[in-house]
User: Fold these one by one.
Assistant:
Number 1:
Amino acid sequence: MNNTTSETRTVQLDDIARELGISKTTVSRAISGKGRVSEKTRERVLDCIRVMNYSPNMIAKSFSEKKTYNIGVVIPMDNMETEAPFFQTCLMGITKCCALRNYDTLVISTERDDVSQLRRVLESRKTDGIIITRPLQSGSMEQLLVSMGVPYVTVGQSSDLDAVTIDSAHKEGSYELTSYLLMNNKPQKLGLILGSMEQTVNRSRYEGFVRAVESSGALVPNKTVFLGVNGEMQLRRVIDDLLQRECSCIICGDDMICMYAVNMLSSIGKVIPRDIRVASLYNSMYLDMYSPPITALSFRAGDLGATAANLLLDMLEGKDTSRETMLGFEMLIRKSTM
Amino acid sequence: MNNTTSETRTVQLDDIARELGISKTTVSRAISGKGRVSEKTRERVLDCIRVMNYSPNMIAKSFSEKKTYNIGVVIPMDNMETEAPFFQTCLMGITKCCALRNYDTLVISTERDDVSQLRRVLESRKTDGIIITRPLQSGSMEQLLVSMGVPYVTVGQSSDLDAVTIDSAHKEGSYELTSYLLMNNKPQKLGLILGSMEQTVNRSRYEGFVRAVESSGALVPNKTVFLGVNGEMQLRRVIDDLLQRECSCIICGDDMICMYAVNMLSSIGKVIPRDIRVASLYNSMYLDMYSPPITALSFRAGDLGATAANLLLDMLEGKDTSRETMLGFEMLIRKSTM
DNA sequence: GTGAAAGCGCTAACAG
DNA sequence: CTGTTAGCGCTTTCAC
């Protein structure tokens, strides 16, 4: 009866049904909890499953339910971002959280606002929903998602105002840090270096900066504000410029920019904070470890990821979720701005 | 005939078959290239597919073919490794490479040698094969994989001697760098700090170090060799010890250890390389950017990932692959050891 | 409370 | 070269 081929066939619903002398329908119900099954049968089934070491073929289940139990996570793989700790940590948070709810995580790459990989995955119907870890102003991902009717969550502000979003308080953080720097150590001549303004996060950062400057009664120092800075060479020119204009404090958009900046400064003999102060609008372990350690805003990337995952899974399960969730930040005042 | 419900039903094989007045078998064959189809029919099918914007339901395909077109990538999410650039870069290489061959990447987390997530994914049958990015001496992942008959590739040496492996020449690199440091700047008193010896990569590094020392005619300086160093506190004690023993040069196992080490050294006023020299057996962008930049071995994590993916996919497609592939390294001699 | 049967969208014998 | 048919392993009506 059992065909004992060399490949040990994996045990499936039928097997445990036959073993128990009941129908696989009942077994299915006992497992899923949908429909009524007598307490006694349920226990027998659950026991048998354990004994026979049954575990469902998720592909068959997917096929039947039209639900994959996978979510896709779009991660930037541009040169500049490839090694940014944020995305890695965020992905960990997502993956761990999904695993707890028996979902898996599919990685989707993007560079700039390329949606080809996202489209490929969506067309394959391998995911139930998507997390965008770096929303862009263009909103092309969101458009695609909406047009295909696929649920998604963005980590950071989306240009799709209806998008479910989990964000860190970048604007508020930027505001606070800028204000702090303006209050402290007067007279202060601030410089600002931000990455691509296509990234919504950089817009939030900029907004916070501008508000802080304005509410201090000053004018935005356009000559020392550099937006859309990208790549090492461009950054070098910006730094030179900032030094030329005798900036007393440089605010860097994120940890990567900050690392480059700090390095360039010290390579030309500038001592932080004696000669110039430096702060970052995004902390990472690399800034913790610099000497002197760098003043920075600290956000919990892992928590962001976990929250994004929970939001998305809640949506998939039909619960309603708040449109926007905000996580706080911590301001780490350290020696680089003393 | 077409039920125009609110949800636009996705076009499937039947639709284009009906459209063309042929059977879906023929359509399937035209797409896959398996079985013979007249050139004319094939073209008609391919055209129709384009026009009707058909794209196959991969879940149905998976179910039918018993092949998921997914590979699982096991990534360590221990505290220490969570932000290590290696795994991120490796994952990018894998993901990009898989995408080219129309596969997707499922992330599987692990801490230490926990196999629970791997087991969960394997039991779900959601992947065709696995890449282990941090093989451990215990080999528990490999055992599980072998016992379930799932193909896999390890990035780095595996304790399973039959495992298909793609590795960087860590041993050779470690040998070369150590030799270089021994030749240069005599007299040299070397210290070595390695992470967990459960990780096979650290064993390779250690082996290279030992060989280099021995072939220089010296004895392995056991008092200044620290294996299995883990966590900031332990590292601090090790560094203190190395200073006490008047080490002239510290070799760090990887970029993370090196960053901590360099930071601790400069926080107690040690100047590199004047007071003490520092090198790392694994480079990352963070070491590039230190000042002074740190002498280190450079491996191409992205290439490793891409190669691992190609190997695995080749295996899945039944091609045979060499058991072990080795990628080279570059020795970056920089100011930290001058 | 339980079972029989249909069906998810594709592939793969087998027959022509 | 093409079509018919039978699954793949689940979930889910529908009937009892």
Note: Chain A is about 45% helix and 15% strand.
Number 2:
Amino acid sequence: MTMKDLHPILQRFILHWGEMGTRWGLNRTVAQIHALLYLSPKPLNAEEISAVLGVSRSNVSTSLKELQTWGIVRVVHIPGDRRDYYETISDVWEMFKIILSERKRRELDPTLALLRSSVEELEKSSLDESVKERVLEIADFFESIDGAYQKLHKMPTGAIRRLVKLGDRVLRALGVI
Amino acid sequence: MTMKDLHPILQRFILHWGEMGTRWGLNRTVAQIHALLYLSPKPLNAEEISAVLGVSRSNVSTSLKELQTWGIVRVVHIPGDRRDYYETISDVWEMFKIILSERKRRELDPTLALLRSSVEELEKSSLDESVKERVLEIADFFESIDGAYQKLHKMPTGAIRRLVKLGDRVLRALGVI
DNA sequence: CTATAATTTCAGTGTTGACAGAAATTACTG
DNA sequence: CAGTAATTTCTGTCAACACTGAAATTATAG
């Protein structure tokens, strides 16, 4: 079983996902494996993944481990077969909620920490008022985004789906537009 | 003028920004220049930027061009000086709105295009119903995110700020939680 | 307990993207 | 229309990260 045996639509999807993966901060193979598992109607073992994607067995192993630490992929077992089989969680919204939290951890949290400590030191510093102002502004921005994320994170996926799909009418009623 | 002459708070900020830049999909120098300009009370010329950050003049030139194409940095002129001076836009929310649109263009739009064409081809394909289902689900997800982005993008920054800062009470009233 | 299948770790290799410095171009000034 | 300052483009080098294949480890079956 190799890539060529897959339906062209699936091929394109997997290749594209790998390509985009690099832009999303993951590596190509990790993203491709994820795409393959997402599209596969049944769990796959590492050997099969390696064969279909044409990447080394060891690379698959490392990538699967990464996907598992995120909680996006889990191991399942097939009776009478000692190999590990893998599948992704199926709810897309749940999946992206996990991805979002991973990205927040890597892309927001470190900056938030820095800004908080900067703001503390700011008072006892001799910096220009205008410069202090700018640091405070960006700190406030990050705090706001963090706050919005926290609220989002606490919601069940159903609520998130509804929020994301909120219509203009509601936004107007809220007075935000 | 070099990095050492800057207040430690500013040094840390610039270094950190550069480091995070790589995680945000930009390169370190681009992000550092942006941080420096954001913190600087007055516009800077390329030579000054090069000296402070300790990177080559050519690298500064390329990076500034990139920041300009995004519309985050603009050229200003100082009477009696033929050099170009650079400054960032000052409104943080406006700034991140621009950054968000850039990221959407690179990280969402290509996938959205792929999924739309996939969904079209899906009907005349012989794929398993379960597989079709999965493709449709992820396509719907990306369409929803795109829709939410469009609405956000049309709002003035003030409205975005209010939306991001929405309290739990409002969310509950909306029935999303 | 031994043999073998499955998985993981590791060291070397390849690939990609950032960067410096040089060369070229553009834009001023007298 | 020189001559020089400022900026940009280009090419080779370097560093960071992904990947392979081999070796080591772990798990299972007889």
Note: The CA atoms of residues 6 and 20 of chain B lie 20 Å apart.
Number 3:
Amino acid sequence: MNEQDFLAGYDPRDYPAVAVTVDVVALTIREGALHLLLIRRGAPPYAGHWALPGGFVQPDEDLAAGARRELAEETGLGGERLRRVHLEQLGSYGATDRDPRMRVVSVAHLAFAPDLPDPVADTDADDAIWLPVTALTSRQLAFDHGRIIDDGLERARSKLEYTPLATRFLAPEFTVTELREVYETVWGHPLHAGNFHRKVLSVPGFVESTGASTERGGARGGPRAKLYRAGDARLLHPALLRPAREETVR
Amino acid sequence: MNEQDFLAGYDPRDYPAVAVTVDVVALTIREGALHLLLIRRGAPPYAGHWALPGGFVQPDEDLAAGARRELAEETGLGGERLRRVHLEQLGSYGATDRDPRMRVVSVAHLAFAPDLPDPVADTDADDAIWLPVTALTSRQLAFDHGRIIDDGLERARSKLEYTPLATRFLAPEFTVTELREVYETVWGHPLHAGNFHRKVLSVPGFVESTGASTERGGARGGPRAKLYRAGDARLLHPALLRPAREETVR
DNA sequence: TAAGTTGTTCTCAGATTGAGTTGTTCTCAA
DNA sequence: TTGAGAACAACTCAATCTGAGAACAACTTA
């Protein structure tokens, strides 16, 4: 059956039985390490494994709304705090055998959040927790969530290059050093502080000065840093390219 | 209901009724213009409008397989020719009201094809046709397909920057000038021939020489051009950046 | 007060880019 | 057969961007 037939009118019971869920790869930075929001599964299949927060798309909500709702439910976040979280669609996963019980197509989303309080085991009985991404092996993950997380991480790394979304990991006001640490954490590379500083200030619309400075210098000394907020650019021109992986060598 | 509940076991009739389709934004270049594969709708809703080729995901196929099947059905393509077409997932569209009759989530895909013969009105009665993308207004398009096409075009333009996928619009062997014309057509900008030549040959793995040259010079004169085939790079390092839109100049 | 740390700015060599030029090989038409 | 125009490929050169390091002042803790 093709779309033409489908659209020409049909019995609603006529189409193949597929369930649609949304899953969320929610990232944040805690103590200098990239963390991921996960839920411990209690029941089979994959009991005891970690899974992404997610669930059915409701009849009255679109995909993005479903993802935002799932995120709100698991983090206990709402209002302004939730609105500051960046959320975008990552991709859909629909392998026929990805759920042992029935055909499920999951629309995965990717979220960038500033450091948030620990999720409270709230309305639901599942315990959600922020886990460092380095602490994960794909054997500990339910379904194809290991693959989804890998895709999300790669997307996140790439998005930092050509969008100003790194600021979404930070509070509304931040220093250039804090911004650099976001890049270093997500990319897993140290960056040259001076060059990074020059670049960030030279890309139009990336950050704008608040005029203020931090109250104190760094924990181990140094001058007070100037404060910035996110600018109005949606795209970085020119981009901040990550160091090429050395594939040319050997 | 969240995923936890869902996965804990449930009645298959329990989940919200959603249909999943795949749609394909198939692009090719004909006579120096970017063309798009579209199908003329015969029946309401949107009778007489253009729609993307697409249809239900079948129980035994994953999303990419469904998209490739739809593409094959509408182009009459198969075997090696079909395998050379680049196909990737574009994104999912699930607004609650995007189909007036029921909830449909469509997983859109993006395809890059070399110039193909005109589709034959084949197994199905719908007439598929390659249309220049410039000849479209979104009023002539069914559902949210105008939006999907816009997203596909933007993705295509951006993919040419950092991947070697421009070669997928060409025959297995091509000249640097043909490759440049792909970029010019998709980006809608003339490019500096000399600089483009230098850049393409300097990016590792983008193209490799076949050693051969074209049989004849250009239609209006000029020497025979050297022939190249696609190299083994999956990503271009450094990228071929498109000229910045002049937003600074306003 | 001394020693160490850090934010910010500067310098400078090397690479990359944009724009134009040159030389040569080819087609077409007179 | 030849002249005119076209276009591939290689080149030059100035402007810009990048990577790496250094300088220096403003802060911290001991």
Note: Residues 1-10 of chain B have pLDDT under 50 and may be disordered.
Number 4:
Amino acid sequence: MRIGELSRAVGVPVPTIKYYLREGLLPQGELSSPNQASYCEAHLRRLRLIRALVELAQVPVAQVKEILEALDSDAVPLHEQIGRAHRALTPTRKQAASDEARAAATAQVTDLLTRRGWAVEPTAPALATLIETVAALRTLGQDNLVSFLDAYAEAVERFTELEIDAVSTHPTRDQLAESVVIGTILGETLISSLRLLAQESISAQRWRT
Amino acid sequence: MRIGELSRAVGVPVPTIKYYLREGLLPQGELSSPNQASYCEAHLRRLRLIRALVELAQVPVAQVKEILEALDSDAVPLHEQIGRAHRALTPTRKQAASDEARAAATAQVTDLLTRRGWAVEPTAPALATLIETVAALRTLGQDNLVSFLDAYAEAVERFTELEIDAVSTHPTRDQLAESVVIGTILGETLISSLRLLAQESISAQRWRT
DNA sequence: CGCTTATGGATACTGCTACTATCCATCACA
DNA sequence: TGTGATGGATAGTAGCAGTATCCATAAGCG
């Protein structure tokens, strides 16, 4: 396959593909002569994955790169691969909440985690995000939303288990890792649009003029 | 309150506050003389909300502006306010999936909506996102994830109802609208970090070396 | 009263991201 | 043999989210 065919197949302009090659998102094609490379099925898949992450899930290109590197590092254990992808996904945030607010939020969140028996590293960036979010909700006067944290956590736990079961049917480790990552990222896009639709429908029922 | 106090209270540099004022995110303070304005509690709340949306939920400034405008337009019915906020939140996407993939996805999604009795406008941008996402998952060979669409939808429906109940306790319409919007946006950040934590914990249980 | 600091308003500049555009020396193919 | 595509390099662009600078005025303090 030549670059033009790749471009037509996925609907991405050739210069953009060249850009992804430059940035190392897409592995180099096999050179048959100094200015002729051929691309295979794997490139096609990869390119589609890149576009889904960039366009649909709005993941920044630099993070897509890290995620793909995590997927490609099949020398490390699966759990570590997933951890790397997670870390690429969550920006390290500066602490914006006040100290008291954060202390309260931290207490509530760690309590939740123990109650649900979730064993997470204390350094997980998602933990920091969760704490900051809870603190922000409190500061914004949305305590009643925070009181649903447990309900949220339960629902999330339920479908995360489903997902992981679904994904565990994959025969090879590579495919498994890829599925987990795609499921994590595109699954979020999925949930987010489902939420908007559910809200629209419910809000129409309740508050239609 | 002067701009410096606002800045210290929320931890946002003065030039940034000036920028938000310029962009119309934050209403002008009351001028007591040509170069002296005073800001009140409402400005403080607004600024905190802006920072939560921008920093925590990563909403682009231009969209935050639209969302705040929707909140401030209390002449229109609540459902319409929410709709505007939703529209500000979801970018109109170009269709990236192939026609057949999209047709199949559309069928599946409309089927889901009828089955669940969700009444949504066919032009809702979230609908387009959902369809594109399902199509992308299929194209990426993740059909088994797509088969959970119903489970996702059910879980989402459940906690969306909880949320709306929680939020309905608010006395005034303004507060209600604000709560719905904050709940929608920061709720997503919340769910997303909970998902990552749940995954980490479950993946550690299953695939720890 | 004078001096330092803060303020409102305007304009310009910066760093970053995700591409696009251009150029050129090959190379494939009709 | 010429027309179009290709690989590789370099430069340029538009948009975003602030920052920086300047100025005339105003506030607070000694």
Note: Chain A touches chain B through 89 residues (CB under 8 Å).
